[in-house]
Amino acid sequence: MQTFAPTYVNIGLNPVTIHRAIAISGGTSLLPHNGFLAVFNGLAGFKLKDSFVRGFISFHVPHYIGMVILVTMASFGLA
């Protein structure tokens, strides 16, 4: 954040909005080598190909929806 935040602040973005965007987008980390996914699949008896689509939907889609809402609100000056 120390690297790119000054650039966005200089172009006029609110630091609170930058922080919100980073907090929302930080949760998108469902990768095949993710420890949580490996443990969950092992406990549930799933294979990666069986659970990856459901995991993608439950991990990524809410974050993308949140980012769309945040960008839309920031575009209108509401965030």
Distance between the termini: 19 Å
Q: Topology as H/E string?
A: HHHHH
Structural class: mainly alpha
Low-confidence stretches: none
Note the main sheet: none
Mean pLDDT: 82
Beta-strand share of residues: under 5%
What sort of overall outline do the alpha carbons produce when their principal axes are compared? elongated
> Radius of gyration, rounded?
17 Å
Total number of strands: 0
Kindly state the percentage of residues in helix. Answer: 55-70%
Number of helical elements = 5
Describe this entry's structure for a reader.
- This protein has 79 residues and is mainly α.
- 68% of the residues lie in helices and 0% in strands.
- The chain has five helices and no strands.
- The longest helix has 15 residues, at 61-75.
- The radius of gyration is 17 Å and the shape is elongated.
- The two termini are 19 Å apart.
What's this model, at a glance?
This protein is mostly helical and 79 residues long. It is built from 5 helices and no strands.
Question: Tags for this entry?
Answer:
5 helices, mainly alpha, 79 residues
Could you give the topology of this structure?
Layout (H helix, E strand, L loop, with lengths): L4 H6 L4 H11 L9 H10 L3 H12 L1 H15 L4
Helix pairs in contact: 2-5
